[in-house]
């Protein structure tokens, strides 16, 4: 993607559909007059009076305990410099988004229009009663040091300047691990720190707390090496002034073991890297552009351990790994501070986690085959679900042991479970899917590429490396639209109606005619059919000219399914095609089957649908926990529709005892584990979180999925086609661009899996 398109995409992302990235959502009922009289006057007076009696009650009756202020004056925004409070707002909203998705912490971002230290401090102090914690962000040095010191001293809630300590914690963890891999001692290594601002000073202090030696450190600011004979050094810079007779980064880098970049983009050259000691460690953490590009650095030296602050390369050393989890732990024990003990505990928790076996889900989410502790994996990935279960407890424990926790935790197991539950639903699952597709791109034919939304989705799939698109439709229209949306690239475009592909059509017609000549198809009618985009596309997949197919954006579902079933047909061993939809619900992804094909499945069909759905759930890296739904609970109705579900369950229990499936069950019992445990403790699902619902018929499944989609505004992936011989996926009429991209990822993964299975079968033969 060109820089220009990336820029436009970022602007549209922030502007549409609603400007900005966060909003406030009520957490209490507000439907009735009674609700409103509790939410506001007169009921609201009661908690007010309780808090007046004891301020601590604010944690009991208001959102304070889970609310963090992300506060900036915009004086050191990423590496963009002093761009002002308004211009810093997108970054602060971004931090709010990260706090929420990684640690379920709510954030108000606050941009303060002052560069005066005292005014800033007084502003934060005055608004502090609202919050459970204060995250200072992107405030330049040296002001940041004084601001943080004073606020920590004068407030009794945790205050942390993220650029100092978040960065110090994560980079110290990465440094300890990198040193272990390069078999060097922190006491011995020569460290060059580029930057002498908030982040650089605090990082270096923390490395020293872990054993780095001041004499081995050279720090530089925008004027060059900070030497002890330089005039007017701030006290923080003076702390690291060197007596060595050097002035430039070039000189400092000679024989250095470690380079820490918290300064500006592109200031390190390959020549400098080559002058470093063997197995150098280079953390180029300036954002958004590092001190040296990742690829250039690893191309320059193959013995390097390289990290940047960016998410698009291995080893993202970025404070996003720190602040959500540190605040989570601090808030959960109502710590009055974030002290050294808590920071050290976070460092060790992060460093140790990188050495543990990585769950498959994380490998998939990052498109990796196998992440293991190595030069390319020195630190956990930000969306590793173990982070929330490991780092906050370590921080909370340290807070308790160092005497700053007002609400100690007693039951650690229970605490870990609540932390895991906090992760809830977000679009991790989509990320997981996309990254898995990227591992091994496949050729996806889009049968309706002359539709703008389809073409846009194909563009995203192409530019993000998810798929190799093949565009089917009216060629001149596709070319016109491609130009309009700046879809550049050497993409195959085919118009099945054109004579340009006559030979290909004749070949497909012959194959099709041979398949169906005893079912009333003549060679002439077969040739005519190949002018139809869905037949042509299906034949492309059938004949191996494409790996997967996507259609249905502008045609009704049945009209697209029919040619697919005729040309492609069912998988061997499969007697039914069916579909499942993944709904992103409050409680996490929920799979619903069969949402599109089988009007009234028999008991035997239901068993097939359940088995196929279990396969798809696993494809998402999730263990299926399935309820076979009904209006009846375990035999409470003797009606035929309930009996068929019961029969399907009996079969599954007998033939597939490993599957976690049970029923027949009403959906409230299926989804409420306490209710189920209380009433049906014998069930295989008792105490479990059901993530898959198999419905007794098409009506109930389809109605439920559409209801959830519209009423809850739930994002949906699907319908995902199951049971077909080749990867064929059909969109809902008028699907959105995002839905088509997600479906593309599904189609690619399906193709990957089918090819793997075919290869396995061939090797057995
Ligand atoms: N990856 C991560 O997690 C994080 C990365 N960062 C990045 O670190 C950088 C600094 O942030 P922060 O400390 O908050 O900002 P500050 O404004 O507090 O500090 C910036 C420092 O960089 C120095 N500097 C600027 N240009 C150069 C140069 N060409 N060579 C050497 N030093 C230079 C400045 O020198 P002088 O003192 O002379 O002005 C100053 O000391 C930013 O790029 C930011 O994105 C920050 C926090 C987290
Ligand atoms: C990551 C971050 O906080 C920064 O670059 O400023
Ligand atoms: Mg920052």
If you had to describe this structure to a student in words, what would you say it looks like?
The protein is of the alpha/beta class and 765 residues long. Among the domains are: 432-567, Rossmann fold (3-Layer(aba) Sandwich), CATH 3.40.50.10950; 578-723, 3-Layer(aba) Sandwich (Rossmann fold). It contains 31 helices and 21 strands. The strands form four sheets. It has a six-stranded mixed sheet, with helices on both faces. Helix 5 (85-103) links the parallel strand 1 and strand 2 (106-111). It binds NADPH dihydro-nicotinamide-adenine-dinucleotide phosphate (NDP), pyruvic acid (PYR) and magnesium ion. NADPH dihydro-nicotinamide-adenine-dinucleotide phosphate is lined by residues 76, 78-79, 140-141, 163, 167, 194-200, 220-223, 262-264, 267, 285-287, 309, 317-319. The active site is at 95 (proton acceptor).
Question: How would you briefly describe this protein structure?
Answer:
The chain has 765 residues and is α/β, with parallel strands linked by helices. Among the domains are: 432-567, Rossmann fold; 578-723, Isocitrate/Isopropylmalate dehydrogenase-like (Rossmann fold). The protein has 31 helices and 21 strands.
Which properties best describe this structure?
765 residues; alpha/beta; Rossmann fold; six-stranded mixed β-sheet; binds NADPH dihydro-nicotinamide-adenine-dinucleotide phosphate; binds pyruvic acid; binds magnesium ion
